[in-house]
User: What shape does this take?
Amino acid sequence: MKIVVLDGYSTNPGDISWAALEALGELTVYPRTAPEEVVARAGEAEAVFLNKAPLTRAVLAQLPRLRFVGIMATGYDVVDLEAARDRGVTVCNVPGYSTGSVAQLAAAFLLEASFRLGEHNRAVHAGEWSAGPDFCLRKTPLLELEGKTLGILGCGAIGRRLGEIAGALGMEVLGYSRRAAPGTREGNITIVGREELLERSRFLSLHCPLNRDSAGFLCRETIYRLPRGAVVINTARGGLAVPEDVAAALEDGQLALYCADVAAVEPISPADPLLKAPNCILTPHIGWATREARERLLAACAGNLRAFLDGNPVNVVH
Assistant: This one.
């Protein structure tokens, strides 16, 4: 079997092994593939793995030997699923491989919001503490998380794990889920309606998929239903937020802080208004990328292909 990985660098820049995939066929790995290069590189492949390289209907029509698409991620919006189904191509993703890592980053943002460690570290290195008249230096208001309310939008595995961490910190944890009715519980999360979630969340963390219903969720309308001075964390998808509305809310103080590991366009556009907004912490989509998570990801990708070849596909995206 001819296997092609179209954009392998982000998953494996060289610190882990491709051996599990190499054992299943003739493997070719490209570090990165531009959209216009996909057909030429994948034209003879029976199995293609990708993370962000797009497989549109037009592209799929030019891959006559293709039988299997392995998404090296949980999200699958880069593949035209209807076109794949029409061509009899099986598409599999990898759910759950980065649950602990992404929840850990969201928790790091929570802790950063409480003590603003980065800003205080910079002040110390700039000499402000040394030159100050007091034994302590406070650049921002400091918050104790215990007793504060965290709202979680999307109570899947990552949201539930974050709920466990927040609970250990003494926070009240509320959540909204399309699958669960208000008044029920998901782990230690109390499920409420979406409006109640917004109205009560001093901290709000986004953990829902990006789709037609959720795109642009964090906009002026929803932001101004949050308590004034709220903190929003987004480790899910950049498209959940309207950058202009978030930047405006940071400027006028409706949001005290916006922490995001994702952007509307990735890599982030130099024109993104969040780059110049105050009280905005941005990281370059790293929540999924711990070595441990990437090792699980590659193992699961090989497992998906092996199961397909055995006639019992798993993690099939419908």
The chain has twelve helices and 13 strands. The mean pLDDT is 97. The longest strand covers residues 255-260. The CA atoms of residues 102 and 287 lie 5 Å apart.
